[in-house]
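Reviewer 2 asked us to include a model.

Predict the structure of this chain.
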Amino acid sequence: MTWLQTLFVIAGVLIVFLVIREFFTWYWKMNEISAKQSATNELLKQQNELIAANNELLEKFVDDFTNK
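Predicted model (structure tokens):
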């Protein structure tokens, strides 16, 4: 086998691998699951920011209440 044939075989195997991988990710909805997980992560980040802001406000309220 020459180096050119070896190169073609490697390229062919790579192409077949990518096509099969794309089919299975589509079949098992992996791309969709990944997108939903990213959206969930963003919502959790927003929730954590809101909780932190709420805790700051609550802390200020308690400080004001106890100092009066």
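The chain has two helices and no strands. The mean pLDDT is 93. We have added this to the supplementary material.
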